[in-house]
Amino acid sequence: MFVFSREQRIFNISGIKIGGQPGENPPLLIASMFHNKDRILRDRKGDFDRQKAKEYIKRQEDLSVSTGIPSMAAMVANTHEEAQIYIDFYLETTDMPFGIDMWVAEKRAKATEYVAKLGVQDKFLYNSITPWDKDIKGQVNRLKDLGIKHVVVQAFNDKDQSPSGRLTSLENILSQGADSFETIIVDTSVMNLPATSFSLIANRIIKEKTGLPCGGAYSNGTHMWQASKDIWGLDGFRTMDAVAQGMASVLWSDFNFYGPIVTAPRILPAVATAHILLSMLVYDETKAVPENPSLPIRKHFSDFLGKLFSGEARK
């Protein structure tokens, strides 16, 4: 269930390994900043609470160290001028990699040109090449000319919204040149909370067929269910969010767009806990735990692993 017959590809984004067999590397968690309703945002002209933004980034960095879960941020912007302000701030604040979240392709291209101008392509995750883009080949060529190395490919098929439809969508995009980048990770398009399962099954199908790292914006499913706050209150919503994203991280996910960076204190520990359980699910199949010292289970339960490997845990 948790071991793929096909060799799994592992990519390196500014020192962060992403991909591989389940449990081999911790999932990369990608936060959102400067999204609509972000409390640190004052306007869409680049005015924001810089001190609070620094505190959020620092807290996420500290949680990454304590949990063993790598992280970065994707910054939402409406224009390339706005994106430039956020990029400059982020690069001054942290060494973590980053992405830009812009839906309009032409505006996203302008922001990407600024990334190339700064020469920070190694740290940049392009999000994303989508099935809705009108000129995928042209977009790919433009990105290649800018020296972009790391890209997200979004897989979704409007005519076939099943897990296998996402594979068909991915194969179509890759055939148009998107398979030529140094790093290719696949977003299997979460549409709502129950349909998240289709994305998770698509992760398994795509990893088995292509070996590419897969994941999704699982926060799309949880944060869209606003009625949960009315049913269970804010604490109930937070619990639902953490459980869903932790569970998704077990089921063949190499990365997770986890939502607002303010939620890091609940999401990183939740995903670390899920990954500890995944490590033992994989051990049950393989009788091994990867040597990766940053794995949450090696970070927090090294004594247990020592007893397990010596046979004491079975006595």
Mean pLDDT across every amino acid position: 95
Helix content: 40-55%
Strand arrangement in the largest pleated sheet: 3-4-5-6-7-8-9-10
Structural class: alpha/beta
Unreliable stretches: none
Q: How large a portion of the residues is in β-strands, by DSSP E?
A: 15-25%
The major β-sheet equals: 8 strands, parallel, barrel
Taken in chain order, the helices and strands follow as EEEHEHEHEHEHEHEHHEHHH
Number of helices in the DSSP assignment: 11
Number of domains: 1
Enter the CATH topology name.
Answer: TIM Barrel
Q: What sort of overall outline do the alpha carbons produce when their principal axes are compared?
A: globular
Write down the CATH class: Alpha Beta
CATH architecture tag: Alpha-Beta Barrel
The CATH superfamily appears as: Dihydropteroate synthase-like
What distance separates the N and C termini? 27 Å
* Cα-based radius of gyration, to the nearest Å: 19 Å
DSSP, total strands: 10
